[in-house]
# Entry
Amino acid sequence: MKHHDSIEQADQKLALAIKQLQLWHLPATPINYAVSYEFVNKKNTDLISQIKQHLSLGKKLDNYFINELFQIHVLGQGSFRDDIITDIDELIADVQTSNQHSVKYANGLIQKIDDNVYNLKSKNQQRIANAIQQIESASKSFKQKQQQLAKQLLISKKQSLSLKNELEEVKKEIYLDPLTGLYNKKALNKHLDQWTTEDPHKNIAAIVVSVDKLAQVNEKFGALISDVLLSKIANKVGSYVGDSGLPIRSGQDEFLILLPEVERSIAGEIAEKIRQGVEKLRFVSSKSGIRLPQMTVSLGVNDFKVSQNAQTVINYTRSLVTDMQRSGANQVTVSH
# Structure
């Protein structure tokens, strides 16, 4: 067992974990139970600290937050896996570059040997003949080895491609939200670090997208339906983001879009297109044929330099949406 508990101790903690889930108003799903068990076990200090901090801010523990804790603190998808992936990526790139150089240098050496065969014919005939014979033999042998190297490089290239494909799957597991397919907060932090390294003065437009009244839909139709709706809305939101942009699931019913080198006014226009696109979506239950409620989103728009505290700017942009939703939903607010 992970915590080396006796059967009696495990039973006691199981009961405590179930009770804790009841206090948090969460169902006893495998992931919820795993997080609750870590909490009552009192050894996973980072997990406990994040839960207490979340609750101290008056926030509820929802499926998104619990799943995030599970991925990072229970499965152990910490920063060391980030580093491993980065190191392997760099290693693959270095090997491929070295292989290309090896082929280039080998071809150059072979060409020099071939050229010298002709250059040596102008002096002592016997010595030249011997030199030619030796050089030709060496050239033939080197060509054979070069052909073997080329075959090995081809095998290495195939293995490298296979490994990169496997890494892409691992990256999806680490950097993508499993429900929506959008990036998660780990990907957000990684991109912010990368952008800061590239240019600390890079301007980033931020769009916070909050799904209106998703909690009410969840209560009326259940978590399965609300998850389906959320996934479809996320797909629509992501469709408005170009290759350079970063669409992120940043909360239970919230998305964040980061757009490098996009002016705030342009980001406001994109936000309005997203609002209209989601508003036009129609949902019908595939089983019952019942028409599900029309969904809308409220959006806040801001911008910042990556050298600034991005989280502070995002929190402020989020507050624009929260204030807006108190007075009415399905709107876009651009920070001034």
In short: The chain has three domains: 7-74, 79-175, 185-334.
